[in-house]
User: What shape does this take?
Amino acid sequence: MSIPWDGPAATGIGSLPGTSSREASRIIRGELPDFLHVPELPARGPGADMIGRAGAFLAEVSEDFALETTPDGWRLSRGRNRAMRRARSWLDEDLDALEEFAGGYAGPVKAQVAGPWTLAASIELASGERMLKDASACRDLAHALAEAITLHLADLHRRFPASALVMQVDEPGLPAVLAGTIGTASGLSRYRAVEEPVASASLRAVLAAAPAAHAVAGVHCCAARAPIGLIRACGADFISIDLRSDDVDEQALGLAWESGVGLLLGAVPTGRAVTDTEASRPVREVASRLGLADPRHLAHVAVTPTCGLASASPAAAIAAYASCRAASRILRDDQDARDNQERSAHGDRPRGRRASRGRAGEDGG
Assistant: This one.
């Protein structure tokens, strides 16, 4: 399935500061007018975080995968308890607000859910050990998550009938799972590294839920040395990584890019302001190094912050999204310049700059 955004585009990773669904949706609708995403507001507390929200999804399909809070995070617990009801309520509140502010919108809408290996590395069994310890539980978790994603996409189709849907599977814990660096409950040892074929099978099962629901799905991993090759081999329609990381496997990135996989590239830092040129530079430089700076390849790109914005101030979050939008505009202008050069070389009349896709009255973006 082809990517549904008209790149170079701009979107967010998911999380935003504050506790107001309406304010978060207002920011998303205003600053990312061509590629919306469902807001996540971890500041509200347990249940609004990435793991708790995934628990709300899972509890809809199996009571065996409902979660309860512990002093250290989350633990498996049968039944839809208070924490799960609260997590579901917050999710519905976020979806209601985005639906309200998106009135008349027909572009892509992205939702996010924690992936099977990040969940397995974060959720405790009754014994106090992580789910990583139990291979059978990890397999069951992946299949339950796939079913939960199917239900969530059906809800999104109902709310956004004119939009193409994008499902982002968040796997920040995947590199540590593959490397075997997750500590056990005692702190005296580490869980055995998960072999790539095993990790791939679970991810593939989760990603496979999207095509059946007429959506595209990909994996976000903002950790250093994101396993781009593994993610691509799982059948991901797109890959989302932190491009400002000092440890990006550019060879694997180039192979994925050439193959037509969509790319959500984290180019805007979340901790400081950058100029428009600085925001676009990471994408332009890596595209140049890989020989993929032509319009055909840049069309697969959406610029994002390097990670979620939960810890940012509202003003910083708005600025980060504006920088993403500005970076995408610069990349589009680069496309137009190359197109005109090619047209001039063939004796054709150069075309004008594309119209800005931002809000009415704004300068670009």
Summary: The domain at 9-345 is CATH 3.20.20.210 (TIM Barrel). The chain has 13 helices and eleven strands.
